[in-house]
Structure formats: C-alpha cells, structure tokens
C-alpha cells in the first residue's frame, strides 16, 4: 500500500516534470516560427502592359522570386509537355505569374524565348540540372518532379495582382 | 521564531515598497473623467475610429511607425511605397529619418523640434496624461510647442488615446491569452512544489531521516 | 531498451558513481534553514538569464539606430513569444540580484564567511561585483531614456576622484569615464562594447566564478545555522534526496513568485520611461539608478562632498569584501552572538532604508536621514572588531568552549 502510493506520487511528479519541460520548450520553439509580418499576405501589383510580349519579368512575392510571363497573342507553341497541368489552369491567360523556383532543387530557371538545345521554341531552362519547362511551367524534360507552382493571382484593370485569389485561387 | 517573523516581514515589506508600490516616491497623478477613461480603455470598439481621428488631427506632425503611419508629407511621397517594398511596412528608423529628412526638418523649423513618434507613447505616459495633455497642452506642460488641436473635444481625444493604446499594447485577445498562460504556469509550479514536498516527506520517512 | 542504453553509457562514463559520490555520499547538516535555499535559487536565476539571454541576442541589434526598435517592435510585437522571453530576462535580472542580496545577508547572519570559508566569501563578493557590472551593461541595451541617462550618470561617477585634493590634478576620474564610454559621448561605440561585455565577457567570468564558488562550498563544507562544524559521519544527511527535494520544492515556490511578476507585474522591471527612445537632449524628470544600486547611490549623494561620497560608497563595498577579517571572533552564527545580532539588525535596517531613500527626492531632511543610515551601515562594519574582542573575552572566560 505504502509503496504503491509513493510510486503513484513519483509517477505524478515525473509526468508533471515532463509537462513542465514541454511547457518551457513550447514558447522557445515558437519564437523560431515565422513572424507575424512575414505571414501577412503580401500583395504584389504588376502592370502587365509595361511588359513586352514574349518577355518575362521577375518580381518578389513572399520573399520568393516570381516570373510574370507575358505571352504573344495567339501563341502557337511547338513543344509537348509531359503533363498538361499548368496550361489547363492558365488557359486563356496571356499574362500570368509562376513561382520561379525549380521543383527539382530550388534554382531559378532561365527564360529562353528563342529556345535552348534541341527545343527550338520558348522554354524555361533550369541551369542547375537541365530541367526544361513550357512557358506555362509544365515539365518538358529533365529531372523536375512536377510543374512550377502557380501563386494565387487576379487580373484587374490591366494589373496582375499576385497574392490575391482570382483566376488562380490558391498556390498550387 | 520572533526572529524569523521579523526578518520575513521586513524583507517582504522592503520588496513590496521597491517593486510594487512605493508610497515614498513622488508620483504625478492625472485625473480623467470616468466616461472618457472607459472609451480610452475600450480598444476593441474605438481604436479604428481613433485611427481615423488621428489621421485627421495628428498625422500632419506625428508618426506612429509601429503601425506604419507616417507624417502626412511622407505619406504623400511616392518614395514611401518603394521603400516599404524593400524594407517592409515598418521602415527602419534610420531609413525613415534619412530619406525623409527634409520633411522632418520642415516640422522642426516650425515647432523647434521634430514632433516625437507616438508608437510607444501610451506605455510611457499612460492614458490619463495623454488625455489631459492632448486636450490642453499648455496647462499640463507650459511652454510646449504642441498646438491645442483637440481642445474642447474630449470624446474624440479619448478615442485617439484608445488608438495609441491599441498600437502599444497587445490586442485584448492576446492579453487574455497571456493571463491564462500566467495562471497556468503559476498553478503548475505550485502543484509541483507541493507534490515534491509531500514526496520528500514520504521518502525521508522510509529512510528514517525525518 | 532505454535501460540498456543507460547501462551502456554508464559502464563507460561512470555517471552513477559520480552521482553517488557527489550527491548521495555528500553529507550536509540536517538543520539547514530556509535561507540556505537562496543559493540554489540564485543558480536557477543565473540559468534563466543565460537561456533567455541567448534567445534575445537572436533578435536584438546593437546599433543606436535599431536597438530601440529591435527591442520594442521586433522582440515585443513581431516574433512570437519573444515578449515572454524579454519579460523573463528583465524580471530575471531583478530577481537574480534580489536573491543574491538575500544570499549575502544569510551568509552574514550565519557567519558563513568565517574560517574555513573566507575564500568562498571573497569569490562570492567577486560574483556580486561582476553581477552588478553585468546588470549595468545590460541596462543600456534597450536604448531607452532611462538606459541612456542612467549610463550618463554612471559614467560621471568616477569623475568624483578629480575633486580630491591632490590626486584630482591627475584627472584619473575623467580618464576612467572616457574609457568606459569609449569617447566623449555615449554612442555606437559604447553600445557595441557594452553589448559584447554583457553577452560574452561578463557572463563567462560569472560562470567561472560560480563554478569556483560551488567548488569552494564543497571543499570547505557547508556552514551550519548553529555555528559549529558537524561530524559528517554521525549527523550528516545525504544531499540527495534530503536537500535536493526540500530545496526543489522551495525553488518551485520561488519560480511561482517569479512568474507572477513576469506575467502580471512588469511595470517595475520594464519602467514606463524606458519605452521612450534615448534622447541626448532631454533628461527624464526622475532619474535614479536601479534599486540594487540605490543604497550606494544614497550614500554617495547624502555626503555633501563629492569625493568623500565616492570614497564612502567604495568603502562600503570594500568592507563587505573584508568582512572575514573585520570579524575575528571565535564565535559563529548570529544565534550565538547577541551583540552581533543587534548590529546585524542595524545593518539590515540601514541598507533597506538607504535603498528606499534613494527613490525619494533629495530634500535636506532626506539628506540627514541618508547620513544617519550611512552611519548605521558603517557602524555595523566598524563594530565588528570591537565585538570580536569582547567575544574573545567571553570565550576565554568560559575556558575556550565554543558555546
């Protein structure tokens, strides 16, 4: 009887001690979480009309580089992507934003309006390990596991609003 | 026994005086009518309105940098936007004062000094002082260069104070969260202390050391 | 599984032997009173300061343009839970010093500075002195009005030497003052070096001194409230679990009080005036040092002559250091020494009164009171040799018997 009660108390103290240690760790770990300011939905406004057709501009959204792509009207693209995921989502848009981070290992791909290597039509080429993307960000060739991410965006008065849910509701 | 009581009491009184309530130290007291005090306290209902009033009445001279509110001349400057894109909404003090030096110096020209930024003023002065000073600056601080902008508008002044409080202090939800956290921490320590004490008794009895 | 891993490590590191020899076989007197727990509380306070301080350095920026905002915006508003860590650090500094003061007074009361523990006392005094410097350097870092002006005044104190009759000509004080500030004004250089001192040099010195202090406590044995050395074999109780559990419970109580202040009463530890950014052209209306320096401050300002005031407050620090040699009586512990007990009460009341007087405006009445209590403080130290001589008389009359 006596021992079991003592053991119970020892267990209670041990358990409470663990809870206390976790309680101390919780705020300390939490300080390492992203701060309020960096979480606030950053909204980037890009004047699409100022970008020449067939060109790409790089802007910063939530600290990440983002391509703003402006395609020529009625572009006939000669290539073939492995999977037509992004081009379906972006159908009918000739100006849109793509997260400019290669899905392979995080480099920033280069825009090749004249093509590169055996691809003689506009592509994104990642210089690190030779990934190729279509102008909509679908994988054409190389190691990338998936298409480039598309941030939420909307078009209003000739301005592309990156970060505001519009024709793309959320980050893919 | 008497000695223990004496030393405990004198230590407690000493720390009470220096840490909690020093009735020897000189303190300035400002009064504030209860109905306005209630407004100034109620951040939830009045801070938003207070911010608008601040923009209309105070922003010509005063900034609230922690809320990314800058003086009117700066707010109208297109440079502000590009700087905010680079540095974030709350500009670093040296960037702000460096880039907009001319605007700030223009204010210095008229008032003799750059009117202070009001981000933390609520914490420094408290609502009673701010209320009285804003209503009648000359009465509270004779010779001050602060113009009597709000004289005769106590309710609006109280709302501005509510806005300043909302900038300086955590939100009411955050505050109640902290209170809970505090109570939880203290309760934990008290329970743990008692448990250890009881356990000690048990173990010592078993060891025959009691 | 875990047990096997534990045994595997233990067979190689012999940790359980270390534990047995240092914690269980280490015997202490059974009659240790509550005030003996102030030592462990100070150790806990030190650990809290180190941990919270490390996290604060991640966001604090030692730059005169950024320091204030990094404290009051980044730390207090932006990064999750940093407000808590700052409040713990600010309250922790005050609690650390409070506990150290209580520890010092306990040591005086039980005569823990006497043979064979003189060295423990001297190292303890060094810890106290380095701790004051650490607190002083840390106080500048938030770069508020009180931080700035507190340092302006502190840096002026050494110039008191220059008003001395002959050595004043050498301008030693001014040189010291300039070396403290790193120039004629308190600016970026001052902030940078105080930051380095506060987060690196002084804490490392403290760590070393605390280690030596603890070693000396073990080496010389812990003192006894009754003032006699115990026969450890017969009367001692094992340090663990007897003292660890007892003082563990006390520490929990201490932390409960500490967190009450952290969560609900920070107005003294983060004073309102320090939320005002430093302004070299405007002195705040009420400027006084922190409470742990106020007694020295009152001694300094109550004495009408600047140089003599300087000498007096340094002398009080020196007397504290020399306590083991001022008091050479064969008797130990205030429990056995009625005369010493009376003077100890005089010391306690004087130092508390001097501290409280420091918070009051310097009126002529307060100056006289300040002088009176300064007298009380020095009376304690100067009476010790006298009491010792009388007690030697008693001791001899009783035939060399200790009690």
Globally, the shape of chain A reads elongated
| CATH architectural type of the largest domain in chain C | Up-down Bundle
Q: Alpha-carbon distance between the termini of chain A?
A: 62 Å
Radius of gyration of chain A: 24 Å
The overall average pLDDT of chain C, rounded, is 92
- Spell the H/E element sequence of chain A: HHEEEHEEEEEEE
Largest interface: B-C, 48 and 49 residues
Oligomer: heterotrimer
Structural class of chain A: alpha+beta
Task: State the helix count of chain C.
Answer: 16
Account of the protein in words:
- Chain A has 172 residues and is an alpha+beta fold.
- Chain A folds into two domains: 2-33; 38-162, Rieske Iron-sulfur Protein (3-layer Sandwich).
- Chain A is built from three helices and ten strands; from the N terminus they run ααβββαβββββββ.
- Chain A has helices at 2-30, 36-39, 86-89, and strands at 44-47, 55-61, 64-70, 95-99, 110-112, 123-126, 131-133, 139-141, 153-156, 159-162.
- Helices cover 68% and strands 0% of the residues of chain B.
- In chain B, helix 2 (34-41) runs parallel beside helix 10, helix 3 crosses helix 10 (154-168) and helix 8 runs antiparallel to helix 10.
- Chain C is mostly helical and 403 residues long.
- Chain C has two domains: 31-284, Cytochrome Bc1 Complex, Chain C (Up-down Bundle); 288-403, Helix Hairpins, CATH 1.10.287.980.
- Chain C has helices at 2-13, 15-24, 38-57, 67-78, 82-109, 118-140, 145-156, 172-181, 188-220, 232-235, 239-264, 294-302, 306-321, 323-326, 338-358, 364-397, and strands at 27-28, 237-238.
- The model of chain C has no long low-confidence stretch (mean pLDDT 92).
- At the B-C interface, helix 1, helix 8 and helix 11 of B face helix 4, helix 5, helix 11 and helix 15 of C.
Task: Write a concise synopsis of the structure shown.
The complex is a heterotrimer of chains A (172), B (210) and C (403). Chain A is 22% helix and 26% strand.
Write the layout of secondary structure elements.
The complex is a heterotrimer of chains A (172), B (210) and C (403).
Chain A: H1 2-30, H2 36-39, E1 44-47, E2 55-61, E3 64-70, H3 86-89, E4 95-99, E5 110-112, E6 123-126, E7 131-133, E8 139-141, E9 153-156, E10 159-162
Antiparallel strand pairs in A: 1-10, 2-3, 3-4, 5-6, 6-7, 7-8, 9-10
Chain B: H1 2-20, H2 34-41, H3 43-57, H4 72-75, H5 79-87, H6 93-99, H7 101-111, H8 121-135, H9 137-140, H10 154-168, H11 172-207
Helix pairs in contact in B: 2-10, 3-10, 8-10
Chain C: H1 2-13, H2 15-24, E1 27-28, H3 38-57, H4 67-78, H5 82-109, H6 118-140, H7 145-156, H8 172-181, H9 188-220, H10 232-235, E2 237-238, H11 239-264, H12 294-302, H13 306-321, H14 323-326, H15 338-358, H16 364-397
Antiparallel strand pairs in C: 1-2
Helix pairs in contact in C: 3-5, 4-5, 5-6, 5-11, 6-9, 12-13, 12-15, 12-16, 15-16
């Amino acid at each position: 009887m006596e021992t079991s009660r003592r053991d119970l108390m020892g267990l209670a103290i041990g358990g409470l001690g663990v809870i206390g240690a976790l309680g101390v760790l919780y705020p300390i770990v939490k300080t390492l979480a992203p701060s309020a300011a960096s979480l606030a939905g950053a909204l980037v406004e890009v004047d699409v009309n100022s970008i020449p057709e067939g060109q790409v501009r790089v802007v910063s959204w939530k600290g990440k580089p983002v391509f703003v792509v402006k395609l020529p009207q009625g572009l006939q693209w000669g290539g073939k992507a492995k999977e037509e995921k992004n081009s379906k989502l972006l159908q009918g848009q000739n100006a849109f934003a793509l997260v400019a981070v290669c899905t392979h290992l995080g480099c920033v791909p280069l825009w090749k309006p004249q093509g590169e290597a055996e691809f003689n039509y506009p592509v994104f080429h990642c210089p690190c390990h030779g990934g190729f993307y279509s102008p909509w960000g679908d994988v054409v060739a190389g190691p990338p596991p998936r298409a480039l991410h598309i941030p939420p965006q909307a078009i209003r008065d000739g301005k592309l609003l990156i970060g505001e849910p519009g024709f793309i509701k959320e980050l893919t | 026994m008497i000695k223990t009581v004496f030393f405990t009491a004198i230590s407690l009184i000493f720390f009470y005086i220096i840490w909690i309530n020093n009735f020897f130290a000189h303190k300035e007291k400002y009064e504030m009518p209860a109905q306005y005090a209630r407004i100034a306290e109620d951040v939830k209902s009045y801070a938003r309105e207070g911010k608008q009033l601040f923009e209309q009445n105070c922003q010509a001279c005063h900034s609230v940098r922690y809320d990314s509110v800058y003086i009117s001349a700066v707010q109208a400057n297109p440079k502000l936007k590009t700087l905010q894109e680079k540095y974030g909404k709350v500009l670093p003090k040296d960037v702000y004062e460096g880039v907009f030096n001319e605007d700030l110096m223009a204010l210095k020209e008229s008032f003799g000094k750059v009117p202070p930024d009001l981000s933390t003023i609520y914490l420094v002065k408290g609502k009673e002082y701010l209320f009285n000073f804003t209503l009648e600056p000359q009465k509270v601080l004779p010779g001050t260069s602060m113009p009597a902008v709000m004289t005769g508008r106590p309710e609006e002044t109280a709302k501005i104070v509510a806005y300043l409080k909302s900038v300086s202090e955590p939100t009411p939800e955050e505050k109640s969260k902290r209170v809970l956290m505090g109570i939880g921490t203290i309760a934990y320590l008290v329970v743990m202390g008692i448990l250890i004490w009881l356990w000690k008794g048990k173990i010592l009895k078993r060891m025959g050391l009691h | 599984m875990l047990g096997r891993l534990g045994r595997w490590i233990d067979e190689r590191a012999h940790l359980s032997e270390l534990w047995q020899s240092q914690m269980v076989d280490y015997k202490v007197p059974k009659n240790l009173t509550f005030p003996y727990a102030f030592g462990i509380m100070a150790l806990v306070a030190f650990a809290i300061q180190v941990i919270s301080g490390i996290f604060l350095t991640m966001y604090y920026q030692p730059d005169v343009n950024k320091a204030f905002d990094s404290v009051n915006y980044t730390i207090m508003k932006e990064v999750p839970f940093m407000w808590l860590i700052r409040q713990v650090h600010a309250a922790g500094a005050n609690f650390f010093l409070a506990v150290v003061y209580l520890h010092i007074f306990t040591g005086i009361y039980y005569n823990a500075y006497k043979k064979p523990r003189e060295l423990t006392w001297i190292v303890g005094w060094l810890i106290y002195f380095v701790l004051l410097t650490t607190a002083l350097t840390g106080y500048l870092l938030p770069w508020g009005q009180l931080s700035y002006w507190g340092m302006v005044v502190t840096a002026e104190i050494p110039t008191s030497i220059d008003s001395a009759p002959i050595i004043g000509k050498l301008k030693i004080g001014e040189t010291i003052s300039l070396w403290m500030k790193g120039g004629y004004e308190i600016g970026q250089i001052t902030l940078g070096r105080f930051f380095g001192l506060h987060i690196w040099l002084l804490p490392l010195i403290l760590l070393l001194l605390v280690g030596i202090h603890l070693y000396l406590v073990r080496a010389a044995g812990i003192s006894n409230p009754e003032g006699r050395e115990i026969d450890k074999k017969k009367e001692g109780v094992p340090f663990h679990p007897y003292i660890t559990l007892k003082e563990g419970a006390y520490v929990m109580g201490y932390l409960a009080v500490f967190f009450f202040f952290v969560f609900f009463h920070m107005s003294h530890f983060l004073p309102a005036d320090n939320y005002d950014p430093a302004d070299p052209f405007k002195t705040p209306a009420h400027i006084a040092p922190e409470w742990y320096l106020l007694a020295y401050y009152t001694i300094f300002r109550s004495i009408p002559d600047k140089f003599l005031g300087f000498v007096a407050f340094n002398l009080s620090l020196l007397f504290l250091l020399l306590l083991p040699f001022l008091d050479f009586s064969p008797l130990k512990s205030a429990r056995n020494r009625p005369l010493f007990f009376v003077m100890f009460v005089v010391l306690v009341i004087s130092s508390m009164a001097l501290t409280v007087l420091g918070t009051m405006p310097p009126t002529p009445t307060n100056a006289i009171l300040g002088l009176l209590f300064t007298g009380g403080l020095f009376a304690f130290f100067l009476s010790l040799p006298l009491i010792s001589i009388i007690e030697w008389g008693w001791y001899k009359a009783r035939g060399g018997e200790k009690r």
